[in-house]
Amino acid sequence: MTAVLLTSTMNSGATFSLIVGGIAIYAASAALLCRIGMAGIAELETLGLTDSLSLLPNRRAMHGAIRQGLANHDEVAVALIDLDGFKMVNDLYGHAVGDKLIREAASVLLDVCDTEAKTFRLGGDEFAICMSGPLCNTLLEGICRAILERLTNPIPVEDRRIAVGASIGLSYSTRADALDSSELLRRADVAMYASKRGGKMRCTWFKQAFDRNLEAIRDMDTELRKALLDGELAVHYQPLVDAQSHQVVAVESLLRWHRPDGKVIGPNIFIPVAEESGLINAIGLFVLRQSCRDALEWSGIKLSVNISAAQLRNPEFPIQLGQILEETGFEPERLELEITETCLVLDPVVAERSLDIIRGFGVNVVLDDFGTGYASIGFLRQFRFEKLKLDRSLVVDSEGDEGSRAMMLSSISMAQALKMHVTAEGVETQAQADLVRAAGCDQIQGWLYFKAMPREEIAQHLSQLTPEGPPERKQA
């Protein structure tokens, strides 16, 4: 009995200590609040509604402003602003410069908005603007266009002048719509991504069709994931011929989606969906692995595989490439990775690092679709491509346009000066073939010689090739 009472007393003592401790903390908190006073409490509340970096009102404050606007007025408009190229600034100059750029961008927004609209920082490189009252949608669009105009000029940060753009999404509600602040912001976010897909440096109003498009993208993404698991995706190959001998010297991997209902969906439709959802990495590795396996037996023929911007931005990609080369036994010297200028412009620091590792394996790097983007001589020298592929539009336009022909000729001369081989793609007529051959292209690709064909068909064709004369022009 004595032991039981002792145990109970000990347990009660521990409980009593906890209670006393809690009372002490509560008393200390109450005393602190008394010392702070009402003014101090208001100051704490203000800090809770303020972004510490830009000193703008934060996301919580924005939701409160929207709710107040809906309560006091019949109309509320919201703009979501995402800075274009901000990640590159952090990568190139460091986060300290990035933070200063955020503060300078906030200053630009405050200056343009003045007292007409409220400006907020939501986090990262995202800002928002809110307006309420009659014609607020028209006024807000005008403010957003003024912001884009201001951002055409570089922003001074320390001793640098940093160019940064913006993609803006806008949404609008009346009291009758009964949209809450979360839905207004969601719609502005959807519209902002529409601005990014549309080319950036623009503002876009939300449309109901955007949501329908998102639903269609989600549906296709679900089907695409299933297609990858069920083996509906197939790799076809289009040959490249030597410009002088006309012999097949390489093949390019091209992905096809054969659905169970018999429809064939082109990569121009499903690849953007895969890039949006993140599935592009899995699909890209599937194509790379399958292509290396298929081309292993095609001795002396080089293999070109397209790599997306998302893959190149993935720091794990060079490791995955090395694993596939080791797993399949494919010779790295026979592999060419085709990338577009967009892959490099989006994140040049990561891209250059990855390409250095890839070249270390012995793999060649090809710049695809040249003539449609931003590449300059300095750009080409920086990344040291082994081959340049002239875009089909440049080849086709050169037939009847002197300016396009001069551009094509200068591109070939520049590539040759930088010790790069040149391929003309999209060649469909004999006149085009004669033109690019005379201009100095090393290889020709296009329907004039071959369309893309399945592995079995191209394997059979390659096994029948002889060194005499040009290949028979078969079109799958």
TrEMBL record:
InterPro entries the UniProt entry points to: Biofilm_reg_signaling, EAL_dom, EAL_sf, GGDEF_dom, Nucleotide_cyclase, Rev_trsase/Diguanyl_cyclase
Residue ranges of domain EAL in the record: 217-466
Question: What CDD domains does the database record attribute to this sequence?
Answer: EAL, GGDEF
Q: Which residues cross the membrane?
A: 12-34
Keyword Protein biosynthesis annotated: no
Does the entry feature the keyword Transmembrane helix, yes or no?
Answer: yes
Question: What keyword terms does UniProt attach to this protein?
Answer: Membrane, Transmembrane, Transmembrane helix
Residue span, GGDEF domain: 74-208
Q: Which SUPFAM superfamilies match?
A: EAL domain-like, Nucleotide cyclase
Q: What is this protein called?
A: EAL domain-containing protein
According to its UniProt entry, this protein's organism is Parerythrobacter lacustris
